Amino acid sequence: MKILILGAGQVGSSLAEHLAGENNDITVVDRDGRQLAILQDRLDIRTIKGRGSHPEVLSRAGCDDADMLIAVTNSDETNMIACQIAYTIFHTPTKIARVRSNQYLSYPQLFAQEALPIDVLISPEQLVTDYIKRLIEYPGALQVLDFAGGQVQLVAMRVFRGGPMLGHELHEIRDHMPNIDTRVAAIYRKGTPVTPKADTVIEEDDEVFFIVDRRNTRKVMSELRRVDKPFKRIIIAGGGNIGQRLARTLEGHLHVKIIDNNKAHAKILSEDLEKTIVLLGDASDEELLMEENIEGTDVFIALTNDDEANIMSALLAKRLGARKVMALINRTAYVDLVESGDIDIAISPQQATIGSLLTHVRRGDVVKVHSLRKGAAEAIEAIAHGDAQTSQVVGCSIEEIPLPPGTIIGAIVRSGEVIISHHDTMIETDDHVILFLVDKRHIADVEKLFQVKVTFI
Question: Which domains does the chain have, with CATH numbers?
Answer without folding.
Answer: 2-122 (3.40.50.720), 233-352 (3.40.50.720), 361-449 (3.30.70.1450)
